[in-house]
Recover the amino acids of this structure.
């Protein structure tokens, strides 16, 4: 047995991203994987990190590695670059464990991530894993390793779920230990090892690199905070943390990491991971002051709400290289926004914010969704018309999914049995039906809206004028690859049968 921990992602990208996987999707560093790796290493434990999805390591090959290395503890990380993608990754992890069990490898193992944190017992049952590590997991993984290595008790380790074999040798009892406390001081977390997570391996979102579409690498993601204070009922971003809270790194720590990425790894394209980056004006001004002093040539993007930004912040952010802001508009119908418990004043002054963002030379990625409970085809069309009216540089168009850990999921009378339905680009995708629109029509509307929006002559003309012919041709190549949808094929079959 090797005296080490292996932590890995599972390569299920083809299932999750289908025809978009090769050229059009991003290839992104998994920040949580990188942080867990460095924390474990900081605690003096030998740890190996495997990015199966990035390095295109098949499930069978990953199992070969685990069998050969025979570590004390092996962990699967159930999330992508964005923590909200945890549920769709669970489908691939269930598939992985089926192969893992067939091989009969006797290595202590766990699954970690936002999805298994909120559904620990179900995750144990679906995977057959030895443990679920809940919450942030930093200390729990180290303590579990030490307990297994020393053959000592692990029942007092906070943030663990597992089955305990009873004295009769046949029955098992489900054990769910006390939740672990959140990290209080974010600067106690180590910096990611960017020599190991080499930015040359990663590739920016296509829209993020508009105007430089053939140079999407090197690429990196920086985090400055975890969590979000707002109560949107469709959002699962706080699953890992167990509460609605936002905790911040010091700006000095953020600038130090950006400096490493730029000066050592020549990163230009940089995503700010925070679910809500533009939320505290004083902190944003400090960030801009210290980054501006560095004089870097960056192309960054970040999330903001329309009610947390102003013209002065836009000016400052643009000057340090924030060329894109992603606004969560969600819906053009105020009643639908209210139903989503969007919170704040997100529907106020939308027009003013859009215009001042453009005035300051910042491009907009517009996030909208179709399928909240009271949605009709008319309200969905209203949101589509909103996109067309402003002719945004990019539109992320989502159906509504009822993610575990959200109010929408709790309200479901019948829980999903197949996590592949949560894959936006996957064949088995099934979004939420509304009170008036069945699921297949929601998905059909979403898919057609995405293609129709980005293929409009006025949109393509704007893109060519602003970003050049190569970017326009890239978009047209993407639109020429339609997504295949099982639910739509079935609906067509039923219609034909009638």
């Amino acid at each position: 047995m090797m005296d080490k921990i292996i932590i890995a992602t599972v390569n299920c990208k083809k299932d999750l991203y289908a025809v978009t996987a090769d050229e059009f999707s991003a290839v992104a560093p998994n920040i949580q994987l990188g942080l867990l790796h460095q924390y474990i290493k900081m605690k003096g434990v030998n740890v190996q990190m495997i990015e199966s999805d990035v390095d295109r390591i098949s499930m069978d090959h990953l199992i070969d590695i685990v069998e050969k290395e025979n570590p004390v503890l092996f962990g699967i990380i159930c999330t992508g670059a964005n923590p909200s993608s945890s549920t769709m990754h669970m489908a691939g992890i269930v598939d992985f464990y089926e192969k893992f069990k067939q091989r009969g490898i006797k290595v202590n193992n766990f699954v970690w991530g936002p999805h298994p944190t909120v559904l620990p017992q179900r995750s144990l049952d679906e995977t057959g894993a030895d443990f679920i590590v809940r919450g942030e997991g930093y200390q729990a993984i180290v303590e579990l390793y030490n307990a297994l290595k020393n053959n000592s008790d692990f029942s007092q380790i906070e943030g663990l779920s597992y089955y305990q074999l009873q004295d009769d040798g046949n029955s098992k009892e489900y054990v769910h230990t006390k939740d672990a406390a959140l990290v209080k001081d974010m600067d106690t977390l180590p910096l990611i090892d960017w020599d190991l997570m080499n930015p040359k391996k990663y590739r920016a979102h296509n829209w993020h690199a508009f105007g430089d579409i053939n140079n999407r690498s090197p690429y990196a993601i920086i985090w400055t905070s975890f969590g979000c204070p707002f109560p949107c009922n469709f959002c699962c971003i706080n699953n890992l943390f167990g509460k609605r809270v936002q905790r911040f790194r010091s700006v000095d720590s953020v600038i130090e990491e950006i400096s490493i990425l730029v000066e050592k790894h020549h990163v230009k394209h940089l995503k700010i991971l925070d679910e809500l980056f533009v939320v505290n004006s004083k902190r944003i001004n400090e960030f801009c002051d210290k980054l501006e002093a560095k004089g870097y040539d960056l192309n960054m993007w970040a999330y903001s709400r329309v009610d947390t930004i102003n013209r002065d912040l836009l000016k400052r952010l643009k000057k340090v290289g924030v060329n894109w802001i992603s606004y969560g508009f969600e819906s053009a119908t105020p009643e639908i926004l209210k139903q989503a418990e969007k919170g704040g004043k997100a529907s106020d002054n939308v027009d003013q914010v859009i215009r001042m963002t453009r005035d300051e030379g910042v491009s907009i990625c517009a996030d909208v969704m179709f399928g909240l409970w009271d949605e009709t085809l008319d309200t969905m069309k209203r949101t589509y018309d909103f996109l067309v009216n402003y002719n945004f540089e990019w539109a992320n168009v989502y159906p509504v999914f009822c993610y575990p850990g959200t109010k929408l999921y709790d309200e479901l009378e019948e829980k999903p049995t197949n996590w592949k339905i949560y894959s936006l680009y996957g064949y088995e995708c099934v979004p939420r039906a509304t009170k008036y629109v069945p699921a297949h029509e929601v998905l059909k509307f979403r898919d057609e809206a995405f293609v129709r929006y980005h293929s409009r002559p006025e949109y393509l003309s704007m893109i060519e004028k602003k970003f050049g012919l190569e970017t326009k041709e890239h978009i047209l190549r993407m639109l020429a690859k339609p997504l295949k949808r099982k639910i739509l094929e079935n609906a067509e079959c039923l219609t034909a049968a009638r």
